[in-house]
Write a structure and sequence with these properties.
The protein is 82% helix and 0% strand. By secondary structure, it is an all-alpha fold. The protein has one domain (8-470).
């Protein structure tokens, strides 16, 4: 059972310095990374099962899922401001404020879910206007209207995950997500293919399965807050019912740029997916396969970035700017090491990876396989940059630095990445491969800019360093 106090957030005892920080970061990041991988496993399960139905359902569920998660992740980014705000409060010893922040986050999640669901219901009409074939747009629309029912739970999950992380209950998050991997697979089997007396809903069945599973995840985390000892003084549910506008405004001030940077990144990949659809079903299917695969490796540095937010915020709240700097760069080093190994795996085993998603021996899949093989090589080359950018961004959130990273990300992803990818894909005729080279360029630029920003912000500046760091 995990301790409720903040011992995991403050490395002390025999170990000290870098070794202690390494242990503290891993104690937080390992369960968070496992939870992220569990979430990704659900997405992979959806893709693999729908992929057995053919190219059209695979493309519909792939792009539909990308549209859903783009909007959902942007809104989750806004709500993830709960983590640095609550982390600073806990570092200063104020658990009551941490609970009030989380309660306000839950109320804000409800308010944000309403326009999110309404927008999802109309996206298929937008795709038709963009030139998508009627059959593909209709299939995407059915998927989106199915998965939309899980929107409120998807947003509420971001708040509860942030609160449990700053309370050092990351193993609870991991346990709930791992259990729900099995539940998601079972729901997919029943609703996609029509087992146990249910109708075969195809790609829409994957959407309904995801929606139900998101409510199960939210309920699981809510149960953890209810039954785990030592959490009664946080009073998150009472605070949700008494949420104050000032606290919701505080979350929005810090969280909107966080949501912005997530939307900028995910939006580039989503837009690339939309453009892939114009290149044909094979290009879109290959894009979805490789993006899904790269997303699996991304879950580990994402967990390290989430841990970096908590560690940096806690150390700054406790008045230890030097320890905050160490926390950010230890997480960054761990991410670079892991993503280097991931790059080697993608480069070495492309055929085995593609075979997980489609039958590579089937002549009907030849176009998808050939494009996917080339995209995997590009994905291998940008792995380290992908890890660097998300960890640097997470550490900067601990400093409450969100606006400048959003500006830097806008320049990197859209000014360099999207513009370069579009030019390579269409005017220069490189198609899907050109788009992915643009994505790689964008990730590299953002990774370098955010890492330099972290280095500058975390520089020891003498007696006034703490005031600058927390500003």
């Amino acid at each position: 059972m995990q301790p409720v106090n903040s011992a995991a957030l403050r490395p002390r005892g025999v170990a000290s310095g870098l070794a202690a920080e390494l242990c503290a970061t891993l104690a937080l990041a390992a369960p968070l990374a496992a939870a992220n991988l569990a979430q990704m496993a659900m997405s992979v399960t959806d893709t693999v099962m729908v992929g057995r139905l053919g190219a059209l359902p695979l493309a519909a569920a792939g792009l539909g899922g990308m549209l859903y998660f783009t909007g959902g992740i942007v809104l989750q980014g806004v709500l993830s401001a709960v983590a640095p705000l609550a982390g600073h409060a806990l570092g200063a010893g104020d658990r009551g404020r941490a609970g009030r922040i989380a309660g306000a986050g839950l109320m804000l999640a409800v308010l944000l879910a309403l326009p999110f669901i309404a927008a999802l219901a109309e996206l298929d009409h937008v795709l038709r206007a963009l030139g998508y074939k009627a059959a593909l747009a209709a299939e995407i629309g059915r998927y989106l209207r199915a998965i939309a029912w899980g929107g409120p739970a998807f947003l509420g999950f971001a708040v509860l995950r942030s609160l449990l992380a700053v309370l050092s209950h990351t193993r609870s998050i991991m346990a709930v997500l791992l259990l729900c991997v099995v539940g998601n697979a079972a729901l997919d089997w029943v609703l996609i293919f029509g087992h146990l007396g249910m109708p075969a809903l195809g790609a829409a069945g994957a959407g309904y399965a995801s929606a139900v599973n998101q409510w199960l995840i939210f309920a699981g985390l809510a149960l953890c807050l209810r039954v785990r000892p030592g959490l009664a003084d946080v009073r998150v549910w009472r605070n949700a019912g008494m949420a104050r506008c000032s606290e919701m405004a505080e979350i929005l001030r810090l969280g909107l740029p966080i949501g912005g940077i997530m939307g900028i990144e995910v939006g580039v990949f989503m837009t690339a997916g939309i453009l892939m659809g114009l290149l044909g079903a094979a290009a879109l299917g290959a894009h979805q396969i490789v993006l899904n695969c790269a997303g699996v490796t991304f879950m580990v540095p994402l967990g390290l970035g989430q841990a970096a937010t908590v560690r940096v915020a806690h150390e700054l709240g406790a008045g230890r700017p030097e320890a905050a700097r160490r926390a950010g760069f230890v997480a960054l080093a761990l991410g670079i090491a892991f993503m280097s190994m991931a790059a080697a795996a993608l480069w070495t085993f492309p055929w085995a990876i593609i075979a997980v998603y489609v039958d590579i021996a089937d002549p009907a899949n030849r176009g998808v396989v050939q494009i996917a093989r080339r995209l995997l090589a590009i994905a291998a080359l940008f792995q380290v940059f992908d890890g660097m950018q998300t960890i640097a961004a997470g550490a900067l959130r601990g400093y409450k630095d969100t606006m400048v990273p959003m500006v830097l990300a806008t320049f990197g992803y859209w000014g360099a990445g999207f513009a370069g990818g579009w030019c390579l894909a269409f005017p220069l005729g490189y198609g899907a491969v050109g788009l992915w080279w643009g994505l790689a360029l964008g990730l590299a630029v953002v990774a370098l800019l955010l890492t330099l920003r972290l280095h500058r912000l975390a520089l020891p500046l003498g007696p006034g360093a703490e005031a600058v760091a927390v500003r």
